[in-house]
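Quick check before the chapter quiz. The format below is the same one you will see on the exam, so make sure you can read both the input and the output lines.
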Amino acid sequence: MKRLTTYCFLLLAGVNVFFARYLAFAMPKCESAIRMIFEGKPILFQEASAFLYPWWPWIGVVVCVVGAILSMLGKPKDSVLGH
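Here is the expected output.
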């Protein structure tokens, strides 16, 4: 079970890296679509920065990599493996 958890964390980290790389190319198109949807109404600075600079998927990458490392370093208890 410990190995499966590690692989799940690594898979999620890979998906987050792919998503972050994709967002870097897709953001200019999304920005023009968002401007068209809001029709010139102002949006919050936090929302604009989240759309213009896709930094938030990298947080998921860091969390998943840390989870994989902790999963590899952790030692499962015998009672957990017994079930």
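If your answer matched, good. The chain has a mean pLDDT of 78.
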